[in-house]
Amino acid sequence: MPQAWECPRAPERSVFDIRVVRSAGGNNADGPHGRPRSGEDLRPRLERLILRPIDNSVLRNLGLAALAWFLLIAGAITAWWVFAPIRQDALDNDLTLVYIGTRIGLDHGWAHIYSLDLQHQVFAQLRPGVPFGDGERFLSPPPAAWLLVPLTPAGPQAAFFVWLALLVAALVSAWWLAAPGTGLARYLWLLGAFAWYPILYSLSLGQPVVLVMLGVIACWRLAESGKPYVAGAVLGLSVLKPQVALAVPLVLLAAGRWRITAAWVVTMGLLGVASLAVVGMQGVNDYRSLLSEAQGVVNNRFFTWAYVVGPGPASYAVEVVVIVLGVVAAYLNRGAGLARIVALGLLTSMMSATYWHLQDFAILAGAAWLFLRDQPPNWQRAWLAVVAITAELAWPLGPLPILLAVAVWFAMVAIPRHESKPALAARA
């Protein structure tokens, strides 16, 4: 008996087999969602996509982005805390003292800007009820007061915020001229500067440290461009806060860059003569009296080697030794790049200072940028993080960690680098 006709069965396959793809609908069909229709096995491709090693550049960019966010958040928190006194009282800053000196000069004559009695009177007028402590003195050179003359008609509060904007612009300019790297890595140096406590603290006080830093960096850039005399004149901007860059001209001279130093000497000489002519002997005597008083204020030497060896002859001996070491190191490094020499000058200034505050460490940002342009070894680059952290935590840790960290950095820059001829040719 003939058998009934049966429809042939389709071959059995697993529900997980995605190799067979139909063209007429179904979950594996092409359509508006762009599903594949070929018979290609997608599993090896998916495995390669998932298990493929991440490219180093991707990891680097992710790390830079994470660091950028960290610096942005840390900087915002630190700035909110550091500027809290300014939000409560816009005159709670050091620029108010310069404003007082300017007011005395305009109202009573420039010969009286260092009169302690007049400073007390004007201070009481501007900040009634606030104690006139031993730190409330105008001690800056006369050019600092002259520079503030155009801002005095606006009043002390407005003068501070205009000055703050100028300081921010100076910091950005210094970064633009000196910061190493390219792309996002270079912008991280700017974020890091605005997140670093010494710089934020300096800005909140209206201190001219970043202006001096800009002058030093502009000096380096101009000298590299073949304009040593203009560079030395620009270095005269250090008159606004001499101690943070005092050793730079001496180190440049020892390294054979005498044209820069000569121009600096002429510039400072002209400013000195003008200052003496304006303040007279009365102003000089008042200034010497204020300096004598300032030497007895512990806070003025807290972040110097006087904290370790004590004030007086011992601290002055350390100052002389450091300056001698800096000069000898400059001579030994006379064949090095100018960036390294200037960085050595800034570190010598810090190490030999007998009058230094936490906000003055802001100048080391410029030293770091110049130091990195000399392409130091990675382990020396890493040491800059130690310097940054010990300065960031200088209040809870105390002065000794940051002093030791800068001392090690000073030794790194002072010891000449011994490079192979190919390395020297590559840097040239």
Residue-averaged pLDDT: 87
Beta content comes to under 5%
Summing up helix and strand content along with how strands pair, one would put the structural category as: mainly alpha
Specify Rg, calculated over alpha carbons.
31 Å
The low-pLDDT segments are 1-8, 12-34, 420-428
Element-by-element helix/strand order: HHHHHHHHHHHHHHHHHHHHH
The beta-strand count equals 0
Distance between the termini: 101 Å
What does this molecule look like?
With 428 residues, the chain is mostly helical. The protein has a domain at 174-427. 64% of the residues lie in helices and 0% in strands. The protein has 21 helices and no strands. It has helices at 43-51, 56-82, 84-88, 95-108, 116-126, 142-147, 156-178, 183-195, 197-205, 209-224, 228-235, 248-254, 258-294, 306-309, 313-332, 338-351, 364-373, 378-392, 394-397, 399-414, 421-427. α10 (209-224) runs antiparallel to α11.
